[in-house]
Amino acid sequence: MSKLSEKKYAITFWIALWLAQSFLMAGGNELEFYLIKNIAIVGLQFLVVQVNFKVLFPFFFLKKTYLLYIMLSILLVYIVFSSSFIFIDLIFEFYYPRFDGGAQIGLISDFWAILSGSSFYSLALVCSLVYKLLKTNQDKEATNQELQKRLENDEHNNPITIKEGHKTHQLLAKDIHFIKGLKEYVVWHTKNGNIVALQTLNTIEAEYKEMGFLRVHKSYIVNMNHVSSFKSNNLNVQGELIPIGRVFKKNVIEFLSDSKS
């Protein structure tokens, strides 16, 4: 989501909250009164959320100083609630110049008044915490997936070195179709032709398994990314039918099943 889209979403959310909260508080009566009152309340809820987003969550919660986070959160809600009456009066005085709310600057000490009156701001704080936890977890998963994707791309883009006599070939994994064993030699079947090298399938199997190469027969290792079809006893790799050995069949089926899931 772009920055502009995020801002539009946030504005829409806060307007929707203002309207919904006003309707719920009004209960069908004196809607105008609660619409005006909730300008102050929603504004202070927004303040609580932003302080949590910008200060409390990154500097205390993420650093695992949970007790300090809780104490500062309670203090924040208490201060906001205590000052809310002044802001509500100011809003009403703006809309109704003759209005005199008479709110006093000071802290409230009545426990039950604090508990009931601060619920709007406590809820805003809790919801913002839940949102940040979900968002942080989502961002971590996205980052991990991106890193995994980059690692996989790096693996497939790293050239494989093959020595053919006095000649050295550098090939990408994606350009290799399969490898056939011929006793002490192997034949690399690639998109540009075959390469005969003095190697063993056991060595190749161990070295390139993580790049999608799978032993499917005592004489064959296949780049599974090039498998176009599968039957009970063979694989179709770029038009070549590669036999599946009985002892390797289970691994082939598991690999193909995992790649589809």
Automatic annotation (TrEMBL):
One GO molecular-function entry: DNA binding
Provide the species name.
Spongiivirga citrea
Q: Which residues form the HTH LytTR-type domain?
A: 160-231
* Chain ranges passing through the membrane: 9-27, 39-61, 68-91, 111-131
Q: Quick check: keyword Membrane in the entry?
A: yes
Q: Which is an annotated Pfam family here?
A: LytTR
Q: Which residues form a coiled coil?
A: none
Q: What name appears for this protein in its UniProt entry? A: HTH LytTR-type domain-containing protein
* Keyword Transmembrane on entry: yes
Q: Which UniProt keywords apply?
A: Membrane, Transmembrane, Transmembrane helix
